[in-house]
Specification:
There is one protein chain. The protein is mostly helical. About 75% of the residues lie in helices and about 0% in strands. Helix 6 runs parallel beside helix 8, helix 8 runs parallel beside helix 10 and helix 14 runs parallel beside helix 16. The termini are far apart.
């Protein structure tokens, strides 16, 4: 509403202010990327060193279009135009991670620390960088360094959330749950809504994708919603999308469609724009839950996925796998486990271990023992200290790895 009011009153502004208002309206309200790009380019014609326009144009290419290389160029120009604003420095480092330019990202983050030593977001990016490298010891150290920024509940929420995700990725599920609940307490203390759903939703995905226990996932989701008082919240404050994501993945078309109908009845249409990908994801999950994996894959393939790198790989890899499309599944599993997406830590909590395990099995079934050994080894290393409930899977993988090594000499 505020953006719309500003847009309607833009003729009262200077030309620069008017163009910035229009560009913001296009990105935040109509989500018209091309209109936003054209407007930001007009701003740069007026002033090639307009650091706001440079940064925000980078954001369109980065977060909306997934063109990280071009986005990085605009962020770097913004940095040169105004070195006092940390925002574009952070963004540049993030695009370097997404391009796999990890040494450059490390140098960028070191530079940010020199200029902005108390910047919380760039401190979090250090955790992401180490997680992309697969160095979870370094990621843990980076997460704990957030404590240097103070004991504010918001900072502690971030720290414990990172530690929880790292533990989950390595198969330490009990520790991950304990840390997630601690993060939820900090989340509540910081005054934010829906602390349980916000900080522990990934535990539902663990129940689904790691434990493969939909009943446990269903019970956990019900507990989260009750703890947060979901039904008592104002409709615009309810995290409907997350709830429907989880419900559709758990399975149960009737309940999922009931909540979708409630969402559509309670939330005005202007807040539900450009949700085609979301609806396709929900339907794909429901079809998979019904055992209709070919249809699920075909549905998921129709998503546009602007700006979401990992969405291209999961859950489509699993749907292909279950549909017997082995080559396609392997290509996507491999793309996923080797991705450099900066935010991958949150996906890895419930996807990385199972994906490495399954990829190793598929290579093994095809007789490609070199790649089978590679992915068995990565899986065994990742879950070396996993909880007892997961150790039988590690034992099987380790035994097969040792057998392959003996066979190959």
């Amino acid at each position: 509403e505020a953006f719309e009011k500003a847009y309607e009153s833009r003729d009262r502004l200077t030309e620069r202010e008017r163009l910035h208002t229009e560009a913001t309206y296009y990105t935040q309200v109509t989500q018209d990327d091309q209109a936003a790009i054209t407007t930001y380019e007009r701003l740069l014609e007026l002033d090639p060193n307009d650091d706001w326009a440079l940064n925000n144009l980078g954001v369109v290419y980065d977060q909306d279009l997934g063109d990280y290389a071009l986005a990085e160029q605009y962020y770097e120009r913004a940095n040169r135009a105004d070195s006092s604003n940390v925002l574009s420095f952070r963004n540049a480092a993030r695009t370097e991670i997404n391009q796999g330019k990890l040494d450059e990202a490390q140098a960028s983050l070191d530079g940010i620390y020199e200029m902005f030593p108390r910047d919380e977001v760039s401190a979090g990016l250090r955790v992401y960088l180490e997680a992309v490298r697969g160095d979870y010891e370094a990621a843990t150290l980076a997460a704990n360094r957030l404590s240097e920024l103070g004991s504010d509940p918001r900072v502690e929420m971030e720290r414990t959330s990172f530690l929880s995700a790292i533990a989950a990725t390595q198969g330490r599920l009990a520790e991950a749950e304990e840390l997630a609940l601690e993060s939820a307490r900090h989340h509540a203390a910081s005054g934010r809504a829906q602390p349980m759903l916000g900080m522990t939703q990934f535990l539902v995905w663990i129940d689904l994708n790691v434990r493969e226990d939909p009943d446990r996932a269903r019970e956990r989701l019900a507990f989260m919603m009750e703890s947060d008082g979901f039904s008592e919240l104002d409709p615009l404050s309810r995290n409907y999308r997350t709830v429907i994501d989880l419900l559709s993945a758990i399975g149960g078309r009737v309940e999922t469609q009931r909540v979708i109908a409630e969402f559509e009845a309670e939330v005005p249409a202007e807040y539900r724009r450009d949700m085609e990908d979301q609806y396709l994801a929900w339907e794909g999950s429901l079809l998979a839950g019904e055992g209709r994996h070919e249809e699920a894959a075909a549905t998921i393939e129709r998503r546009e996925l602007a700006g979401c790198q990992l969405c291209r790989y999961q859950p489509l890899a699993r749907f292909y796998d279950r549909a017997g499309r082995t080559d396609s599944a392997m290509a996507l599993y491999e793309a996923y486990v080797n991705s450099h997406a900066d935010y991958r830590l949150w996906w890895d909590t419930n996807n990385l271990g199972p994906s490495l395990e399954r990829l190793a099995q598929l290579y093994d079934e095809q007789g490609d023992l070199e790649n089978a050994a590679l992915y068995y080894a990565r899986f065994v290393e990742l879950w070396a200290d996993a909880d007892a409930e997961l150790q039988p899977r590690v034992t099987v993988a380790r035994a097969r790895l040792e057998e392959i090594i003996r066979e190959r000499g």
